[in-house]
Amino acid sequence: MPEPVSFFVDGQPVTAAPGTIVVDAAKTVGNDIPVFCYHPKLDPVGMCRMCLVEIGMPQRDRATGAAVLDEDGQPKIAWLPKLQTACTTPVAAGMHVRTTTDAVERARKDVVELILTSHPLDCPVCDKGGECPLQNLTMRHGPGSSRFVFDEKIKLEKHVPLGDLIYLDRERCIQCARCTRFQEDIAGDPVIGFDQRGRSLQIVTHSDPGFDSYFSGNTTDICPVGALTTADFRFGARPWELKHSDSICTHCPVGCNLHLNTRRSGVAGDFVIKRVMPRQNELVNETWICDKGRFGQHFATSIDRLTVPLVRRGGQLVEATWDEALAAVAARMQAAPGAVAALAGERLSNEDLFALRRLMEGTGGRVALWPGAMGGGDVVQQVGVGAGTDIARASGDTAIVLVATDLEEEAPVWWLRVRQAATKAGATLDKSRAQLIVLNGRSTTADSCATHVVRYAYGAEAASVTALTAMAAQVRAGQAPPAGVTAEIAGAAQALAAAKNIIVFYGRDGLGYAGSTAVAQACANLLIATGNGGRHNSGLVPVWPHSNTQGAWDMGVRPSGLGAAEFAADAAVVIAAGADPLGDGEQLPGSTFVVAVELFATLTAQRADVVLPARAFTEREGTLTSGERRVQRYYPALPVRGQARADWQIFSQIGEQLGLGKSPVSAAAVMLEISRSVAHYAGINYQALANVEAQWPDVGGSDLYYGGTAFQNNGGLGVQTPTLIERGQAVAALAVAAAAAPPEGLRAVPVAVLYDRSTTFVRSAVMGAHIPAPYVELNAADAARMQVADGARVRLQVQGRSAELTARVNGRAPLGVVLVPQSLGGLVLHSAQPATVERA
Amino acid sequence: MFIEILKGLGTTLKHSFQPRITLQYPEEKRPVRPRFKGRHELKRYDNGLEKCIGCSLCAAACPADAIFVEASENSDAERYSPGERYARVYEINMLRCIFCGFCEDACPTEAIVMEHEYELSFYDRASAIYTKDMLLVPPAGAPDTPQQVAPGSFNRSIPDMHNPD
Fold this sequence. Notes:
The complex is a heterodimer.
Chain A: E1 5-9, E2 12-16, H1 22-27, E3 52-58, E4 77-79, E5 84-85, E6 96-98, H2 102-117, H3 133-141, E7 160-161, E8 166-168, H4 178-187, E9 192-195, E10 202-205, H5 217-222, E11 228-230, E12 243-248, E13 257-265, E14 270-278, H6 291-295, E15 310-313, E16 316-319, H7 322-335, E17 340-345, H8 350-363, E18 366-370, H9 377-383, E19 398-403, H10 407-410, H11 412-423, E20 435-440, E21 452-455, H12 461-476, H13 487-498, E22 501-506, H14 513-529, E23 539-542, H15 549-554, H16 564-567, E24 573-577, E25 593-598, H17 603-607, E26 610-613, E27 622-625, E28 630-634, H18 647-657, H19 667-677, H20 686-689, E29 719-720, E30 747-751, E31 775-777, H21 780-786, E32 793-798, E33 801-808, E34 817-821, E35 833-839
Chain B: H1 2-16, E1 40-42, H2 57-61, E2 67-73, E3 85-93, H3 102-106, E4 112-114, E5 129-130, H4 132-135
Antiparallel strand pairs in B: 1-4, 2-3, 3-5
């Protein structure tokens, strides 16, 4: 850590790390220098001139170098003749900054006056009005009147769709470039930019479709005026009318912290989620969220939610009371002791999973995670990343390894943070870049900033990690990498051997449960061999398919590795909680009594004998455990729909009917039970999860110029569960199960896409245009051989199942591989399979 | 004491010959003063478009929280007000309203005006909530909203103002 430097702001002594810019340093002592274009996450550009201050340095004698003193014996300050931008000036030892002089005040007045010459006065209809940095700074620093003629205000287009999600109001734009800098530096999707210059300067998009980025919504948050608005929230409500509830995103294992802004809506006056804002958690999502999280919450208030319990009578599902429905389930379970199979969907919170496991233990039944497409949760408990790991700030001594994952599609905010570590493009004092090693069977976005890209053949995922581990050990022992390996692999081995910290992300790209379990063990062996498992800034991160898969493993609910029919083969009662095996193309034995605990009338719910309506995450309390094993708490935001009950309530009430003890009174009480019976959840309770501490940068505090009020985190930063290594236990490397020999010929490989047709996401109408029709990706050579052109209809056949899909020939699929995106409505694949493709 | 009684009776006698000021309400009604603050009306422009732009500032200014506004977006095919924004839902709970007139002051387009109707009584609480169609004045001779207009003809929410001469 370099020596901090001392300097003075308005005579007040301040210390800051060298390289800190004056705006940030002044903020640490409560001096809010006004800014528009500066954002603490972005490199400064000094475009808006709002942060002008007086800066001086102590005078030194040219001959001796000693400080020149004035009459009072104080060092004489040589003030720079012109005002300086505080956002581009790094602090220096002994520097003096004046922020309240007449010259500074006048400069601020002039800048506001100039910005307002072409800014419309439509605050009453502007979505930013009420939380607008320009509005606030005009009130605080503005001149109150203008010397410019009002009639000469320029008028520009007010309704310019940049894409179908983001709208631009050209005359409100103050050309601060926060949005374009975010897209270029943070998101890595430079799809918007400036066009023309001077008064004609305007934001344009140069992608087709417009503003094609998974992070586009963040630009509306950091826009210091109302120039960028989202299609979802446009004119939805004024900011001061919204209620805030803290929540956690349920779409992926990152566990982004959210604010749900709710309000009554319409003549009926139902509460709805008006907008979703990121909530600052510097170790999880900083102040960013992806568009899936921002626009994908509409399922919670969807009109087709189940609201009353349904019981099958005379072949029809009819409405029933809770007592009838629970009694019906309990009676069936009592009649078939030990013959109950529960499929726990990955929607369930830790409390739900724990209550379900308790119920199954009490009745001698069995429970499995569904669909359970990925394994390795036990390995993550051993060698997962250590407490306080900060991916985005990983520096040059860290190697980040991505194995079998397309991180941007599976966990966009992790990708954003990994990219940050690998490029250090935003505002960061530590510019040394982490080594990014990408192992995949195909090209992904991560290749764009990888230092080493290793291509394996599908089927050789675990083997390639094991080989790399051995090679890194050789390099570490002073040997050269064996001859015959490519420069990329040798480079990767050298980077791994040199790295002090290693963070490994593993996923399920082209893999099923068995394959991903092997990859997890291979990655764990890599970490154990290099001594990098389960410690600060080092360890394993699973890119789970859902938000609480890690929580399920922690609660003792694991995938069975079997299909639904085999798992439930001899069961008399099947409980499908948030699981839809029929929708996933599986079958359930015809004679079983099926209980569906669901939000929606899924195929399984339609087949069920009892349907119990569950509460959405917006209507209840609970906790989710992210891939980094951070247990995070969400809070109720909306009134309960109909008679829905929380899943943990439903399971413990069934248990109550079966004489397994009284149902706990609250989710917090369930968490207390969890902390007593799950070793690594010891000490985790709802109070601990709600703890917050000051974070840097300070956004959403008393000053509103960094962004909206919603960023402030008052709901808790969450608690990371300790790994086995952190609990002082030794972890040994285990043998990796050998992968089955890859099938000959053309192979269909399951891959994940962000915008899919999952039960929850498909209900966001605003995202409808972004969810593609089912498609497959073909290699150009394969496509030419099959005479299939890009965009043509093809028939894909895998193991006797077939589907007609659109072919895409876009250079991503390797030779002999058909990429089959999952959850789009096409074929469900559990691993790489031999396939045939022909023109339809 | 006798004199005082006579004095009092004299006052009564004097007033019985003066003009009567009691009004036979509700048959007779006294006109209110021009600045009387009665029930609100939502005004229109001469072309029939609503002045209200759904900005919700009246609701923000209301000390009794009597006003609920929910905005939505205009299009040229379905135009309610000039500019992009209009009030999709506009409700005033007359049981809550204290007739202070802050809503009038807050309105940037002079859309909400407290007029002279003061006979506000209800049989139940629900009917005390005045909805947008009850508050909106009828379009005098102009087409009702939503109107279909030529694209680009009403792209400003707030009418152009000029520097005072």
